[in-house]
Amino acid sequence: MAAALSRALKLPGKKGSDLGEYDPLTQADSDDDSEEDDLVLNYPRNGLGRGGCLGPGAAEPRGSRTRLEEEEEELEEEEERGVGSGKRQDGTGAGVGPGQVGDPEGKKARQRGAMRTTTAFLLPLVCATLTVLLCAFLLPCRPGALEHPQWETQLGDVGGVKSPPMALWDVDGDGMEDLLIAVTKLSNNSQQISSLSNSKEYSVVALDGASGEVMWSRSLKETVSSLQCGLRTTFPQKSAAQKENFPPVCLLITPSHLTAINASSGKKLWSVPAGEVQSRAVAVPDLQGDGVLDLLIATLPADQVSDLSLVLHSGMDGALIGRPVNFNLTADGKLIGPLLHETVVGAYYILIGLGTVEAVPLRDVYKKATNGSAPPLSLGLKDPIWEKQRRSNRSSLIHIYSGPDHAEYLFPLVAGVSKNRNNLDAQSNRNSSRSNWVLMSTNSKVSVIRERDTHTSWTINSTLHSPPAFGHFNDDGVPDLLIQQSASGVRKVQIIDGARGVCLWEAEFVCPLLVLEGSTIQTTAGQSVFLFWAGDPLSPSRNTTKVSTPEPIVRRLFLLHPAYPTVLQQLISTTDTALTAIVSYQDIQKDSSYVVVLSRPVSGLGPGAMVVKSVSVRASLATALTIQLEQDNKAAGSSHTPSAFQINKFFKQLSFRQQ
């Protein structure tokens, strides 16, 4: 009996005669126990079949593996042989139903089920992966911030409130615009006020746009009246590798010379005498076939007989092209231009005047300068509409504007154009030479002249003290005008519709005692933000018309967005005097920087220090002071007061792009 229990419970026991397994509980039993063994051997047939929970019987072979493992191996062998296992061990042949291991249909069903399970698992995983990748590539990431969102550099001395010439250009190839600026310093041995007039040192300095560090400095013998960059020095016949070796070129204009310098190092490339230069340089199409844009400037002739001369210079080496072309302009007034204009048919004209606005075909200037030489093919076109404006066939001048009010300024109606962004590259010329013009006259009038037929679109009366800035306040596609006027201690700022000449927005402030034009920056959404300097906002319902300026004068730089016309963002607050400003762009960061030149008082009687300050507009908006204007201000249709959360969220999400 002990032997039977040992076998049934799979305890270690004596070996059967067939396997030789040792069982200490049954070692003393005799062979007469075989009947009990037979009972155990027959027990599985009574319900505990092979491999039952009580273990194998004595008649079954036993070893180191269990009977369950042996059955699994048998089933696998049957599957490999393709033999069904639907028969029971008792030989009755009763089927065990579909889905058993050996059933081919059951096997296929199980495979299909496994494939469906795998597909149900992998399909959502693949869809989720694709969604993540699409979001990563299609949804724009928030642009990174500048490493130095604000910097300040002191360069030289400021005598009075004269604005130093400056220009923006990427001179080191890092993708960020750098600043080139003319600097005036007093020599160390000239601290006495009586000797200030003849003891100045002149130079041009290049500042890194990212950090404000001085990249190079070049000394000059004369003061700089104009600084322009972007003159092309590559040649069509050269390979791309050769073109990369040519540096960016900047042009310096002094009272008597034209000088081209390597913008990367400040090294002089060429310098030529130019007479009494009265204007900036204008880049004109290639006149000599050398692949380089040539230059045109306005000068006063040495004999002073003629009013004005137009002079052509080679962009390659500055050499004079032909001779100066004199124009006997009888009007007396401020010099207008010269400006290059390309009409819709591709004809080139030079706009110029003294209190008036006249146009002269560029081909005529070239023919007179070269004694009748045939002009290049690019100058051969004529615009029939413009040619009809000639007063006589013998005159080379085409009349654009004249009247009792002398012309003061003439600007192309292009968003972002300003006197400090007047470079010589082809893109700048293309942007500013195919537009309507804004004319400012002496009798407080502002007019827009259509370039197609030179007729006036609209005129308004406004006492301006600085040139307007151009940007998009509404969505009609026509740039609008930011204008400023001052009277009785009040600074009025207005935005005028460029298409119709009506006022879109206006507000009044304490006059900051500055003569500085505004700026515009185009957002990635298409509209512009408008920047201007002013004092504290004034209530439109005040009773007095004259306002006294407080001491000290606090000057504030405000930013206006058309989406919130009753809200201003204060970016800068200072007691320094702002002299001139320019806006640079960082395309990678989708940001822009407002670069301003300040005059900062110093101790003693000497002139103030010239300080260049740059602030990231996006970074400044994150910490700007929000100014809420009163609803009576003429703001384009604001019906409710936005919450502080809405305002902060909107301005922090702004991004900018090149105009």
TrEMBL record:
- From the UniProt entry, list the residue stretches annotated as the region Disordered: 1-111
Signal peptide coordinates: none
The record ties this protein, via Pfam families, to: Beta-prop_FAM234A_B
Can you give the residue ranges of the FAM234A/B beta-propeller domain? 166-634
Write out the transmembrane intervals.
120-139
Query: InterPro entries this protein is in?
Result: Beta-prop_FAM234A_B, FAM234, Integrin_alpha_N, Quinoprotein_ADH-like_sf, WD40/YVTN_repeat-like_dom_sf
Protein's cellular compartments: Membrane
Q: Give the main location.
A: membrane
The answer on whether this UniProt entry bears the keyword Thylakoid reads: no
Q: Which UniProt keywords apply?
A: Membrane, Transmembrane, Transmembrane helix
Membrane topology per the entry is:
Single-pass membrane protein
Acidic residues bias (residue ranges):
29-39, 69-80
Q: Which GO terms describe its cellular component?
A: membrane
Recorded hits in Gene3D superfamilies, A to Z, give: YVTN repeat-like/Quinoprotein amine dehydrogenase (2.130.10.10)
| PANTHER family in alphabetical order | PROTEIN FAM234B, PTHR21419
Q: What is stated as this protein's family in its record?
A: Belongs to the FAM234 family.
What name does the UniProt record give this protein? Answer: Family with sequence similarity 234 member B
The organism encoding this protein is Astyanax mexicanus
